[in-house]
């Protein structure tokens, strides 16, 4: 279609040249098809036999990063131009930006500030050269060029200068330093940021201060902090520390644990950075290790945007995500505005958040297809229709992304893609922040316990449990690294929040004293860390560490808390609840496995009366697995990965645990022709069940008829919904059926609000249990591709 368009004769009296620009990696397959076009006869032959000749006024331009996969036949047919980044440098870009500054005096001051700071700091970030001396090169979370940094600086300056009213030179310098911090310094690792701060202060010639509020006559940060710990507010004309801007947390009664976000200096800073970029429509990418709350902070920010003016689209990439998946996802959230122009409904902006953006597989020719399509979409503001092959302009969209640093299953991204974003390194929160987060949640939860037997202990135990959990986590991470045989030994901050969530199941009816709550903490620590360990040696080591920490932190209760096995659960009255005698479920210490066996024997007997008979012998190991599974199915959005060889009871125990937790089991049934379309149909059936009841989706490695099923399950786990699962008319039907319920909850009944309510409520009722065998390479490969 493009060739036919270019081939059309020139209008009369018009003399012009036409170019087809190929922007992206050279793929040896399609570029070989172009060889005949690049020959003297300029002829393109299509598979149907049609021939299209390139006219004399038309030429082809290839814009590529490298020629790694181009054959000599291709290279010899093209004129080569090597564009060296050193030739042009970054100064022309800044001068062009300066031209957009309205006030000549302000432009002159900014030019002086540029000369004072930018060349020196840019050289240090790129080469490690500062004040004529070389030092170890600073580390960046993603590879960037000096021009990328200056482009980011100009965008940050545009954002902050909008808020400043007629700034004087001293104030302009404060704004410039703040923008330097979050452009040239934004992608630096934590240790490099300290050096950046020292060089910045030396160049400025100003002294530093650690006060919560710092005037513009000096720079923030001295011995205890750096300029990264402060923000410059143009409205009050001073620097404020991020920690001074943290609001007091007040718990919302009945709020689910996963909805709690405790504000810290880190979350306030991340929110300000993303807000600044959204205001000036600059795409931004947040890079940090798992558990640094990138996704949670960004999604929390997006949820608080005005729903009348913004539509949100969450996308999670995995190694199996294709360019088509991305396009289907975007196209299902836009509508036609004018001929050839698409976008969200008029008057709204579509904000697209892509999580794990560097996960897609790199193909044979070094291309990550979804990432390349996203580059085209952001840069050219549109994409090609896959069926009619015509260009579609897409307006009123904004992209945000998050990813982990390259390594493991995460791939290095195309530098030309990264150059479209401002990159922010989200560093690991400090110990003080972590302890503040979890002690705030626990203190709030244990408030009603202060009148019990050990009331004084309950008033202070939030901080003690937070410190103990952090200490245990650090010990496990330091001594249990992942290896080829223990590839699933991946621990992150989410594990701390799981222990905290388990402690929040304590009630005043069941937890009567300090010993009981210490036993609960022991139980949660075992469930989160110990259950993942595979050798007896590792398990014994972990229990020894747990004992030591318990004795150090809780000397009065440690001996009693470490006695006999620990079995917690809320299934003591499960049978009466199932029979409708409406006994409240309470998470309590159930004593020994003998007592638990009696409860599960009764449940199994009742299960067999109404379901296909399972003839199970419940020995201690089976009971232990049942308690673990039941605990997960009773937690909101609790999911499990069960690893064991075939015939070890994974499915039988899941069915019994689900019965005890009052959940329905949903499984797919494979047929000879079962494919992705049939799997999607089964998922639609499951979602119709989720409207009214809790469902356990039990999926085994036998069900993986096609690896694409795992991509859909990855979407269920991360986003709670599969992209384009419903046709437009089915989606409309669901939205209309939700309207009444949404209104009763006091929420706006717009299309997006109703759809999001459906997805969230379905997600609350869904528990995914994956049962996999450790035999062979499959599990290891899948864990790497879908971390």
Helix content: 40-55%
User: What count of helical segments does DSSP give?
Assistant: 30
The fraction of residues in strands falls at 5-15%
Overall body shape:
globular
- Give the N-to-C terminal Cα separation: 40 Å
Query: What gyration radius follows from the Cα positions, in whole Å?
Result: 30 Å
What strand line-up does the widest sheet have?
Answer: 13-16-19-12-20
Indicate the low-confidence ranges by residue numbers.
none
Find the structural class using helix and strand composition.
alpha/beta
Strand element count: 26
**Can you give the mean pLDDT?**
87
Largest sheet at a glance? 5 strands, parallel
List the helices and strands and how they pair.
Blueprint: H1 2-7, E1 18-23, H2 28-33, H3 35-38, E2 43-45, E3 51-53, E4 58-63, H4 72-77, H5 85-88, H6 91-98, H7 104-127, E5 129-130, E6 133-134, H8 146-163, H9 169-181, H10 190-204, E7 208-209, E8 213-215, E9 219-220, E10 230-233, E11 238-241, H11 265-279, E12 284-287, H12 294-303, E13 310-316, H13 323-331, E14 335-338, E15 341-343, E16 349-355, H14 369-380, E17 382-384, E18 391-394, E19 397-403, H15 415-418, E20 422-425, H16 431-446, H17 455-479, H18 493-503, H19 514-528, H20 536-553, H21 558-561, E21 568-569, H22 574-578, E22 588-589, H23 593-610, H24 620-634, E23 640-643, H25 650-660, E24 664-666, H26 676-690, E25 695-700, H27 708-719, H28 728-744, H29 751-765, E26 766-772, H30 778-785
Parallel strand pairs: 1-4, 7-9, 12-19, 12-20, 13-16, 15-18, 16-19, 23-26, 24-25, 25-26
Antiparallel strand pairs: 2-3, 5-6, 8-11, 10-11, 14-15, 17-18, 21-22
């Amino acid at each position: 279609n493009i060739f036919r368009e270019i081939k059309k004769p020139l209008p009369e009296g018009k003399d012009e040249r036409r170019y087809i620009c190929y922007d992206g990696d050279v793929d040896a397959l399609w570029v070989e098809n172009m060889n005949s076009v690049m020959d003297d006869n300029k002829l393109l032959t299509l598979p149907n036999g049609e021939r299209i000749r390139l006219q004399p006024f038309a030429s082809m331009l290839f814009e590529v990063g490298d020629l790694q996969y181009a054959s000599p036949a291709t290279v010899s047919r093209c004129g080569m131009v090597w564009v060296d980044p050193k030739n042009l440098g970054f100064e022309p870009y800044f001068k062009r930006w300066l031209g957009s500054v309205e006030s000549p005096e302000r432009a002159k001051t900014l030019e002086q500030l540029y000369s004072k700071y930018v060349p020196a700091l840019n050289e240090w970030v790129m080469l490690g050269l500062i004040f004529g001396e070389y030092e170890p090169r600073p580390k960046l979370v993603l590879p960037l060029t000096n021009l990328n940094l200056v482009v980011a600086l100009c965008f940050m300056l545009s954002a902050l200068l909008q808020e400043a009213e007629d700034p004087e030179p001293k104030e302009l310098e404060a704004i410039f330093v703040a923008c330097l911090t979050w452009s040239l310094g934004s992608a630096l690792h934590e240790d490099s940021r300290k050096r950046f701060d020292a060089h910045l202060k030396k160049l400025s010639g100003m002294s530093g201060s650690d006060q919560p509020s710092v005037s513009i006559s000096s720079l923030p940060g001295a011995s205890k902090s750096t300029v990264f710990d402060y923000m410059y507010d143009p409205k009050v004309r001073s620097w404020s520390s991020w920690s001074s801007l943290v609001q007091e947390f007040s718990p919302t009664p009945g709020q689910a644990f996963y909805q709690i976000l405790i504000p810290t200096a880190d979350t306030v800073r991340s929110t300000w950075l993303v807000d600044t970029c959204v205001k000036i429509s600059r795409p931004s990418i947040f890079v940090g290790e798992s558990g640094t709350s990138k996704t949670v902070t960004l999604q929390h920010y997006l949820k608080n945007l005005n729903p009348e003016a913004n539509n949100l689209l969450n996308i999670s990439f995995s190694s199996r995500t294709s360019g088509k998946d991305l396009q289907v996802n975007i196209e299902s959230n836009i509508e036609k505005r004018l001929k050839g122009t698409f976008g969200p409904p008029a008057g709204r902006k579509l904000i697209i958040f892509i999580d794990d953006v560097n996960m897609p597989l790199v193909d044979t020719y070094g291309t990550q297809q979804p990432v390349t399509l996203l580059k085209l979409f952001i840069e050219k503001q549109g994409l090609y229709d896959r069926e009619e092959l015509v260009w579609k302009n897409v307006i009123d969209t904004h992209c945000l992304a998050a990813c982990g640093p390259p390594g493991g299953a995460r791939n290095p991204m195309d530098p030309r893609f990264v150059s479209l974003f401002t990159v922010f390194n989200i560093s690991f929160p400090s110990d003080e922040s972590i302890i503040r987060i979890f002690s705030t949640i626990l203190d709030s939860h244990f408030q009603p316990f202060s009148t019990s037997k050990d009331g004084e202990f309950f008033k202070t135990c939030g901080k003690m449990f937070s410190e103990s959990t952090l200490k245990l986590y650090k010990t496990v991470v330091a001594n249990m690294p992942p290896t080829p045989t223990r590839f699933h030994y991946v621990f992150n901050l989410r594990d701390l929040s799981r222990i905290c969530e388990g402690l929040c199941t304590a009630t005043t009816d069941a937890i009567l004293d300090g010993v009981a709550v210490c036993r609960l903490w022991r139980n949660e620590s075992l469930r989160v860390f110990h259950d993942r360990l595979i050798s007896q040696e590792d398990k014994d080591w972990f229990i020894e560490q747990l004992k030591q920490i318990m004795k150090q932190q809780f000397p009065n209760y440690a001996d009693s808390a470490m006695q006999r096995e620990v079995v917690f659960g809320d299934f003591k009255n499960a049978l009466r609840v199932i029979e409708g005698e409406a006994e409240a479920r309470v998470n309590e210490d159930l004593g020994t496995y003998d007592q638990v066996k009696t409860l599960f024997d009764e449940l199994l007997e009742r299960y067999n009366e109404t379901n296909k008979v399972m003839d199970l012998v419940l020995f201690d190991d089976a009971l232990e697995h049942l308690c673990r599974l039941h605990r997960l199915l009773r937690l909101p959005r609790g999911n499990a990965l069960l690893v064991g060889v075939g015939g070890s009871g994974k499915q039988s125990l899941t069915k019994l645990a689900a019965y005890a937790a009052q959940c329905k089991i949903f499984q797919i049934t494979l047929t000879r022709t079962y494919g992705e379309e049939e799997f999607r149909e089964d998922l639609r059936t499951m979602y119709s069940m989720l409207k009214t009841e809790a469902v356990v989706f039990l999926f085994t490695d036998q069900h993986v008829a096609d690896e694409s099923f795992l991509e859909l399950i990855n979407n269920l786990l991360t986003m709670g919904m599969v992209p384009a699962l419903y046709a437009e008319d089915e989606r409309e039907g669901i939205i209309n059926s939700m309207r009444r319920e949404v209104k009763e909850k006091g929420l706006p009944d717009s299309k997006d609000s109703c759809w999001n309510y459906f997805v969230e409520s379905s997600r609350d009722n869904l528990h995914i249990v994956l049962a996999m065998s450790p035999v062979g390479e499959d599990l290891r490969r899948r864990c790497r591709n879908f971390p």
